Amino acid sequence: MATTPAIQTEALVKRYGRSGATALKGLDLTVGEGEVFGFLGPNGAGKSTTIRLLLDLIRPTSGTVRVLGVDPRSSHELRGKLGYLAGDFVVNGRQTGRELLDYLGDLRGGVPRQRIDELAAALDLDLSRRIGTLSKGNRQKVGVVQAFMHRPPLLVLDEPTSGLDPFLQQQFVELVREASGNGQTVFMSSHVMSEVQQTCHRVGIIRDGTLVAVEDIDDLRKRAVRKVEVVFGSPPGLDQIAGLQEPSLTGNVLRGRLSGDADAFIKSIAGFHVTDIVSEEPELEELFFTYYAHPQEA
């Protein structure tokens, strides 16, 4: 039995002002229930506009939007089923973190204090301090807690780890994985490629208001380039090496770039005495930038 998509847009257009500047140009997007979906693109591509439309913070010029099966313009109940976090979490600074989270938890039907405490501990967040005294990074931690604490069916996250250090970014990744394991859907805009690689099932790449690609993250990994370094007992000739892009040989050390199937490369070095081999984790960033700059070449 088919499930209702968590997010679905059809021919979605958004123009701003009298000049008619177009932020979205007929966006067709479907995000499945329980999916972690990365929404990627350069600044000004239309990511935040899309998110604001999903949350009914702005209205479309034309086209349709469905969030958890309903039009966000006509459902007040939908808000309680969402967890939202922008890149800069701004609230009344006179409250403590505890006071704010208790208040928001009550609005959402009640959130156990233990749940709030567990999230705060994972992020090393002091809930007794007034929010106005917090650094941007600590204020963003409060935002992470309020988005995740009620375990909403759909999390909408717009550059969520802005201001967080690398350790806390990893804690955020664990929260996303936990949410995915619970069957929650996560729609996430991010410039942090490690987050995307570690959490997302699929990514949509938007450029100038147009969705230029939707890719399975595992397929992207297969196409991503790995840097390879091989140390030989005695150097082979470069013409004896197959499957390696941009090969170079310095003494006994072979360097190059490897993408896709590694079979031909492995077989070509198997006849030599290999003393060491290093293959870096493939990076997807170069593929993404290819889409951003030249989508027809990706």
UniProtKB/TrEMBL annotation:
Membrane-topology descriptor: Peripheral membrane protein
Domain ABC transporter: 7-233
InterPro entries registered for this protein in UniProt: AAA+_ATPase (IPR003593), ABC_transporter-like_ATP-bd (IPR003439), ABC_transporter-like_CS (IPR017871), ABC_transporter_ATP-binding (IPR050763), P-loop_NTPase (IPR027417)
Matches recorded under Pfam families: ABC_tran
One GO cellular component term noted in the UniProt record for this chain: plasma membrane
Signal peptide start-end: none
Chief location of this protein within or outside the cell: membrane
PROSITE patterns, per database record: ABC_TRANSPORTER_1, ABC_TRANSPORTER_2
Record keywords, A-Z: Antibiotic resistance, ATP-binding, Nucleotide-binding, Transport
Domain of life (superkingdom): Bacteria
SUPFAM superfamilies (alphabetical): P-loop containing nucleoside triphosphate hydrolases
BP terms from Gene Ontology: response to antibiotic
Cellular localisation: Cell membrane
Single GO term (MF): ATP hydrolysis activity
Family: Belongs to the ABC transporter superfamily.
Name used for this protein in its record: ABC transporter
Species: Rhizocola hellebori
